[in-house]
Design a protein that fits this description.
homodimer, alpha/beta, Chitobiase, domain 2, TIM Barrel, Alpha-d-glucuronidase, C-terminal Domain, 3 domains, globular, alpha-glucuronidase activity (chains A, B), A-glucoronidase_C_sf (chains A, B), Xylan alpha-1,2-glucuronidase (chains A, B), Glyco_hydro_67_cat (chains A, B)
């Protein structure tokens, strides 16, 4: 029918019919029947997914056999239950508890595809991988896959409040309907777990790090338990954010001092109460003494004291504490970029072994581009967990097409030099650099109640890509984009090629039209929607954009070398030299580390001022190119999603121009120079841009917090 | 596939294949081709709807012909464009501008179904009616339908805030995504307009009556215009709530005094600005001097002054003012039930002719049961618009199955006796009692971002039923239920019969388990979730449940006869006698009008105390019966929706018991009598029920308002 349309709810699990007739015939022939080992909720999930996946892809009833026939069959079976002859074909020693083998076996006795693993969850992951192979139209002949995740804790952080608003959420509201839980199980909870399992995500922190203690009361724990019960068969563990002052607010104690005996006991009891309800509860995620949140420092204690308090409570239950390093203080007038390092690094080695320190990818705050956080590699005795932001607080909300795995990849591949060349951030995160016992990667979710989960259809790629990189931090962002495109839209090469290119270039586009040449945090106050480089009236200096760009009559940029804040000294000496030297500092970090005159000469011979204008224009032009590319894709995409993306690209172009015009007009009040000839004339006056107000922009922190 | 499921997004416009093979054959034969008159956006909408509707129902490609063949054809044509021979078959004088004819014509020249109307909107309404006939599997032979709406303004009131929270919204958040408007047009906007047009709703007030002036600024008006442009082809006009103090807040004036010349000019200019953008803008909906909202009384003026101020501004553009009568004052210590009447009735006849006074169905506030509002029939010279609440603020949020058209019907059929027997509320509302020039009915929407729009699948029936009753206030609620069931689920009589019965009984069930025998407003504070009959500590007396039930050691109930507040005197003398006399007062209004001793003897011989407990128990038992009925419906409903409703009925039963136990335990502290033997033992103590707190219950008014 002409009205059929894809609202995107199914994400990359589209399972649409294989449109290559000969391939379809081959698959149908190779997968005539299915045998799945019996037993347990996860095995039921596998069966349902195969019924749905194979049913959709092959457009025929899926025939499940009660016994293996080994002939033109898909077999999903635990390793321990395989016959001796099949066991010899796979080596379980290579598998972690979440890993799996997929092999096509053709010999005298067998003509089959085998998925095997040590655990049911491994089988589920293998099943999703197998379905992806079909979705990507890859041949099954000679198939041999061995996969184990390289990172232990692969989790989403939901900044979801109990009133269902989502801090920095741009895809509607929280999918957790606390009011109707525990008795009403929304189908979304199940599909959320499916989607996560399909990319190997195994943990979810349900609540905002700006936490509310109420979630730890029995009334809410009953609701959390209901979600945990839904998620369990999918290998997805639940974590909660622990408000440090909860012993006072919900426990009735007079203090939350981490060394107080009653406080220690309260957390022990509370933790036990949680595990009695949720035996596989993951642990606590904590934001303490940061942006107004309570913490151990309220009692003259340290982050170490706070983290170890909760670690001791969790230890008997095998839970972990994930303690965020995102701290900066209004009482500390050193460069905000330096403060987390100074606070945490000295205590390396003193944390309990079930504590992970969760560090944002860069030293400021999820900017379009930052150098990697100097803590990575600087705490060899402590597990450092990566915190990426999947929701686009500073990258165009859910209206801009910006493919984030490209950003994640850049961070993961950055070399810390902490153990010589090749000491990449990925090696810190996966623990291989310092042989960590437990490792993790977190992504701040971009998921909401919008029909397609993420608002922008391409936002789904960021969720997908985060999961894939958490599983394997060495994956290539281009490969991931291609997987996602094929599973979500079509395998048509005339679509996959151009759109993949567009995605890979989109991240540099947003850097160009928002924060080029190392500029950062020039976002308007509070909601971070649109440019506000002129903002200078907030109570804390480091909340003002002027703190970061430091534009003045002489020039622009933040001097973080020895002549400035010396934040650079927190990096390995090799990087200190590279970034500190104007000859070798990459232009993308130029104004991050240096304050330079407006007429400073860039590598291309143009002045810094001209270079700035040219970059802004380039960003706008890149969005124009994206619009052209997408227009050409009309034949390959359903009308619904094509139209969605077209409208959103229109907004992106409008806002890219807004950024260019607002920033360049503002900086011109200092540079007093003409715009470079390459740059289009601004569409409005500086006064106009300064007058814009958005009191109801989405994602603002609610007043009660 | 086993995973196929209906998430309810398509509402009653399901258009699923006609499953009766012979009927399908007949339809296919009778509707071989379609001819639709050319021209204009509404005609395009009609074509698209027929393509979708007939395509789905008949499961075949719809063949549109460029010219009428009159043979086995559906013809949708303006009356003016019909040939003389067809014109003689219909009489246009009987049609209002929104009315339509549908006729099956079989004669020598013709063998066709004709839909005709004076206007394109009439054709659209006729098209939807025709599709409903097919959805209900009705024969086309001899079909002869002539329909015109009995009420002019048939509108939804959205209590939606600019931050997308919805006051008294229980189906997620506002479907208006103000942030991405005007450039991003969500498919929901289009489907919202379709759904409304399908039941004849022709107006929508987008914003909360607790209004924010910002919606009248250019930044937001541009967004409103985008919605109006989407809605226009569907005959749906946009209205806005006007904050009375907007001239100060967004206009920069020092006053909002309705007699001030600058204020008068400001509203004239603002109104013109709106009409320049939206030429068919409907008008303003105003809540003034009510529950903290600003209004003319702030300046020593009257509601009359305020309403006429806006009416004069709207008059040149043919817009209307809808002024709400929901007012009660903290400075007025008379019975709250009396205040609106006292405030408005004396000014009957003084309002401009483009003012409608919008009156809630009852004198208090959308309770499970109230007698009709005494203003109906008491202002013969002023159009009184009905305000129903479709969202279930006081009827179980979106978790209880309560079929509201049953309540609406009860109100509309109530006899005001204002012009003798038979002066029903319906006749006041449709204007026939006093020959009104303009008439209207509003429903406070239950629509939100939930996949199925209304949260509870059966909440869709309330939206549907409201629309149908606004079109024709004399329709029977059972007929409406049946229409909705057939279009939404199935025509299987084994389903339609029992479920219709369940729906019709559901309203009395909620009265029984919440507020039996005329009790009212015993809801917990603020959020109105669950029972709070004990609440007595709010600053204004009429905000406390104890104000309404007046339980004491002697008895219970609000004496509104001459010996009490005398609110009864606001009704016609016939009703004063009937309700005032204990012999003739219907038991459902007993404690609304009378304070009676605990041992007062009811008609069945039991004491009032026993009767109360028996009613509460009966409500609980009725929910138990609904659960049984629904369980039996499993064969007829898709798993998704069957499971949804089952879970929700589980919550309803739990909460029905909660109401029974909390209220009866509380009242027992006064009656000091044993529970009647028919009543189950309470599950918890009164202290437990009093201790329950729900700070994040949905639908609370945000703090900024």
């Amino acid at each position: 029918m002409s009205f059929s349309m894809d609202n995107g709810y199914n994400l990359w699990l589209n399972y649409s019919k294989i449109d290559d007739a000969s391939l379809l015939e081959t698959y149908r022939n190779q997968l005539q029947t299915v045998f799945v080992t019996d037993g347990g909720a996860t095995m039921d999930v596998i069966k349902r997914e195969l019924d749905r996946g194979l049913g959709g892809l092959l457009q025929q009833e899926v025939r499940f056999e009660p016994n293996p026939t080994f002939q033109n069959q898909l077999i999903v079976s635990r390793y321990a239950e395989l016959g001796e002859d099949l066991r010899t074909l796979v080596d379980p020693a290579d598998l972690t508890s979440e890993g799996y083998f997929i092999r096509t076996i053709e010999n005298k006795k067998h003509r089959m595809v085998l998925i095997t693993a040590q655990t049911d969850i491994g089988l589920l992951y293998g099943t999703f991988h197998f379905l992806r192979i079909l979705q990507m139209h890859q041949a099954l002949d000679g198939l041999q896959v061995m996969e184990s995740p390289k990172v232990d804790i692969r989790m989403l952080n939901h900044w979801d409040n109990l009133d269902r608003t989502v801090e920095r959420g741009y895809a509607g509201f929280s999918i957790w309907n606390w009011h109707t839980l525990p008795d009403y199980i929304d189908q979304r909870y199940i599909d959320y777990a499916r989607a996560n399992a399909s990319i190997g995500i195994n943990g979810t922190a349900l609540t905002n790090v700006n936490a509310n203690g109420l979630v730890l009361t029995p009334h809410y724990l009953e609701k959390v338990k209901a979600l945990a019960d839904v998620f369990r068969p999918y290998g997805l563990k639940v974590y909660l954010t622990a408000r440090f002052s909860a012993p006072i607010e919900i426990g009735g104690l007079k203090t939350a001092d981490p060394l107080d005996a009653d406080v220690i006991q309260w957390w022990k009891d509370k933790t036990k109460e949680i595990y009695d309800l949720i035996p596989d509860f993951g642990g606590f995620l904590v934001k303490a003494n940061s942006e107004g949140q309570p913490g151990p420092q309220n009692y003259g204690r340290t982050h170490l004291d706070g983290a170890n308090l909760l670690a001791d409570a969790l230890k008997p239950h095998e839970g972990v504490v994930i303690w965020r390093a995102f701290v900066y203080s209004e009482h500390d007038d050193t460069d905000r970029a330096k403060q987390a390092y100074s606070e945490f690094v000295p205590d390396d080695g003193k944390y309990r072994d079930n504590v992970l320190i969760q560090v944002k990818n860069g030293p400021i705050d999820f900017q379009p581009r930052e150098p990697f956080h100097p803590m990575f590699g600087a705490m060899p005795k402590t597990p450092l967990m990566m915190e990426f932001q999947i929701t686009k607080e500073y990258l165009g909300f859910a209206t801009h097409l910006v493919y984030l795995p490209k950003l994640f990849e850049e961070v993961l591949r950055s070399d810390t030099y902490q153990k010589g060349k090749g000491s990449t951030v990925a090696k810190v995160v996966d623990g291989s650099l310092n042989h960590k016992k437990v490792t993790g990667m977190a992504g701040v979710a971009n998921i909401g109640t919008d029909a397609n989960w993420t608002g922008h259809p391409f936002g789904q790629a960021d969720w997908y890509g985060f999961g894939r990189l958490a599983w394997d931090p060495y994956l290539d962002s281009g490969t991931i984009a291609e997987e996602w495109l094929r599973c979500t839209f079509t395998n048509n090469e005339n679509f996959v090629g151009p759109v993949k290119k567009m995605m890979l270039e989109s991240r540099e586009a947003v850097v160009n039209y928002m924060n080029p040449l190392g500029l950062h945090h020039m976002f308007d106050t509070g909601h971070h929607y649109g440019p506000g480089p002129w903002v200078d009236n907030l109570s804390r200096p480091e909340w003002n954009p002027v703190y970061y760009h430091k534009a003045d009559d002489e020039g622009i940029g933040f001097d973080r070398t020895k002549t400035g804040s010396d934040a650079l000294s927190q990096y390995a000496p090799e990087l200190g030299e590279k970034f500190g030297n104007l000859e070798t500092c990459p232009e993308e970090y130029l104004l991050w580390f240096h304050h330079l005159p407006w007429d400073y000469q860039l590598k291309n011979g143009r002045t810094l001022w001209d270079g700035l204008g040219i970059k802004y224009q380039q960003g706008v032009d890149q969005v124009g190119d994206m619009i052209k590319t997408w227009e050409d894709m009309k034949p390959f995409v359903d009308e619904y999603r094509h139209n969605q993306v077209s409208m959103l690209l229109g907004i992106q172009l409008k806002e890219a121009k807004w950024w260019r015009d607002a920033c360049m007009l503002y900086f011109q009040t200092y540079s007093k120079m003409d715009f470079p000839k390459e740059m289009e004339k601004p569409e409005n006056t500086l006064e106009h841009y300064k007058s814009l107000q958005f009191p109801f922009a989405p994602g603002i922190r609610p007043t009660w917090n």
